[in-house]
Amino acid sequence: MKKNILYIGIAVVTGLLAGWLLFGNHNAESNSSTAGSDTHDHSSETAEQMWTCSMHPQIMTSAPGDCPICGMELIPVQSSAEGLAANEIKMTKNAMALANIQTIKVGSSVASDDEGMMSLSGKIAANEENNAVQSSYFDGRLEQLNISYEGQQVSRGQLLATIYAPQLVAAQQELITAASLKESQPGLYQAVKTKLKNWKLSESQINAVESSGKVRDNFPVYATVSGTVVQVMAAEGDYLKQGQPILKLNNLNSVWAEFDAYESQLASLKVGQQLKVTTNAYANKEFDASVSFIDPVLNNATRTISLRATLQNTEGIFKPGMFVTGKLKGEINKNEESLRVPASAVMWTGERSVVYIKTNPNEPVFEMREVSIGNRSGENYTITAGLQKGDEIVTNGTFTVDAAAQLQGKNSMMNQGKQEVSEMPLSEMKMKFSESFQKDFNEVLQSYLQMKDAFVKSDSEQVSAFAKATSKYLKTIPRGSLGQMEQSHIKKSIEILDAIAQNDKLENQRDHYVTLNENMVPIAMNVEGATPIYVQKCPMANNNKGAVWLSTEKDIKNPYYGDAMLTCGSVIEKIN
């Protein structure tokens, strides 16, 4: 009996042990699998999708819709990786490969076949010294014009036109009469012949009239030079005055190559300097020339200077408008602080130069960096500030990286990510006006607001009419007691209003409207009135610099774009 109990106990223990081995491990594996599954699901979760505007990257929303500034449809923002700085972007390896993005590490020098050569970009222009104008030598009607289009070749002595000239008809009759009296009055005869010669009639033409005794109604005009027609300045049937131009010709046997040089390159340029000129049309040929002129005035907009070289063009190789490149020896600053990078790495926006730096050596992470450039040597730029030796920069696919930065709302060429600090805020521009001026100015505002509504409707005629009325009201307000700043703003406002009134092109009127509001808005902000006035601003107007206007309505109705972007803008100030 005891043995049976013992056997039963051993069997139970064995069964429990076997059950634990079979099912215990399975449950552990199941729990482990479940835990792993939970971990996997958690790691696959992505951040909430954000949406932005392609024109206003600062707009970020968690749901699709329309841009609150310009009304354009929002686009999804690319997901960014964790751990990135504020203006860093990360690209996928697939995107890097498709865009063929290449980088190099910045060193003290870059290999170049044009070491010590300065490269300038320019284009071919007509040599203005070879310009000639064919004019009418007498009053008359243009009966026939044998030259009808630009680019036509003209040879010296070629018949250009035929003109009916009443003055010459009378002069011929005088010649016939004087010829019969030339023995008794030789002075009169010679005076009549001289008058006809001054009208460019040849000796043979004068003799033909004298011998035939017949008056000729129409007279030919012959080319005095050879060249290419660059402008036809008259048409058949026109009544011409003496000296009025008919054609403008240019002899293209020599042309000008006009180049733009940076301000920093001026020290290396001088008249008479030799340069090599190349063009895409003849990529394997170089043409010798020398600098013949350097413009004494710097272009303030581009910060460049123009220089010119004269090229012989007897074979007609160079065509006006053709792009060319000039290379000449220049003094390259090789101080230790200057670095040289490929020209393809630098993006120039007109106001600044930028490059993209790879901030993580092991990951495709980039950030925009503003740099200062010096001379261009061959296909390389000298960097005077903004980079350090060892920085890794993008040299190919730079615009693709910049486009990715724009879509992610990071600093880029289009979105600088900084505020303008050069202008005084409107709210800080304090002016003082008398009570009578303020009362009169409120009447001026009513006419101004009508003009604003005409801008919203894109009605140029109404804009001109209300601008004229606003100017008239503003001129009648006494302003002798006002300060210098106040008078300056009023005077400028009247000047711009008159310009708008005299202009019938809506685009030009809107350009003037920007300047008008720069003067009118500060006045309105310092004038008390019964009706609240809103100062509103469109960030895209005035070439993306932004422009303001006044309105009695809080809702945005954009006068700079009208129906094209009616709701683009926002209220930046309320005048009580």
Number of domains: 6
Q: What is the number of E strands?
A: 28
Low-confidence stretches: 26-47, 108-113, 332-336, 418-424
Largest sheet: 6 strands, antiparallel
List keywords for this structure.
6-stranded antiparallel beta sheet; conserved putative lor/sdh protein from methanococcus maripaludis s2 fold; alpha+beta; 6 domains; 6-stranded antiparallel barrel
Descriptive report:
This protein is of the alpha+beta class. It has 6 domains: 1-44; 46-77, no CATH class; 93-112 and 334-407, conserved putative lor/sdh protein from methanococcus maripaludis s2 fold (Beta Barrel), CATH 2.40.420.20; 130-250, Beta Barrel (OB fold (Dihydrolipoamide Acetyltransferase, E2P)); 254-327, Elongation Factor Tu (Ef-tu), domain 3 (Beta Barrel), CATH 2.40.30; 426-575, no CATH class. It has 11 helices and 28 strands. The chain has helices spanning 2-43, 93-98, 166-180, 186-198, 203-212, 398-407, 435-456, 460-475, 484-502, 506-525, 541-544; strands at residues 51-52, 60-61, 75-76, 88-90, 102-105, 117-126, 131-135, 140-145, 153-154, 159-164, 218-222, 227-232, 239-240, 245-250, 254-262, 274-279, 282-294, 304-312, 323-329, 339-342, 347-348, 353-358, 365-377, 380-385, 392-396, 533-538, 547-551, 570-575. Strands 4, 20, 21, 22, 23 and 24 form a 6-stranded antiparallel β-sheet that branches. A 6-stranded antiparallel β-barrel has the order 6-15-18-17-16-19. Helix 7 (435-456) runs antiparallel to helix 8 (460-475), helix 8 runs antiparallel to helix 9 and helix 9 (484-502) runs antiparallel to helix 10 (506-525). The longest helix has 42 residues, at 2-43. It starts with a helix and ends with a strand. Residues 26-47, 108-113, 332-336 and 418-424 have low confidence and may be disordered.
